[in-house]
Write a structure and sequence with these properties.
Number of domains: 1
Distance between the termini: 45 Å
Protein name: SemiSWEET transporter
CATH class: Mainly Alpha
Keywords: Membrane, Transmembrane, Transmembrane helix
Mean pLDDT: 92
CATH architecture: Up-down Bundle
InterPro entries: SWEET_rpt (IPR004316)
Helix content: over 70%
Largest sheet: none
Pfam family, one: MtN3_slv
Organism: Thalassobius vesicularis
């Protein structure tokens, strides 16, 4: 049962930032996004990814690979479309 909870959390963690990343690249509107908050979250999910790799926990690894990619896209958009 715990494995299913882990994979569900991983799935939700993966998909939750994709709409935001898509939205900022489509609209090029980033004025309401905090660069500091998004950089901190990028650092957070990057560290979770490293942790997942260290303990070989696939739900954590998969979720945070996608989260890191989405956060990089959001931060890149914020820097590009100031």
């Amino acid at each position: 049962m715990a494995l299913y909870v882990g994979y569900l959390a991983a799935f939700l963690g993966m998909v939750c930032w994709i709409p935001q990343a898509r939205q900022v690249w489509v609209t090029k509107d980033t004025k309401s996004l905090s660069l500091t908050a998004n950089l901190l979250f990028l650092a957070t999910v990057s560290l979770w990814l490293v942790y997942g790799l260290m303990i070989t926990d696939w739900p954590i690894i998969l979720a945070n690979i996608v989260a890191v990619i989405a956060m990089i896209a959001i931060v890149a958009a914020k820097l590009k479309f100031k």
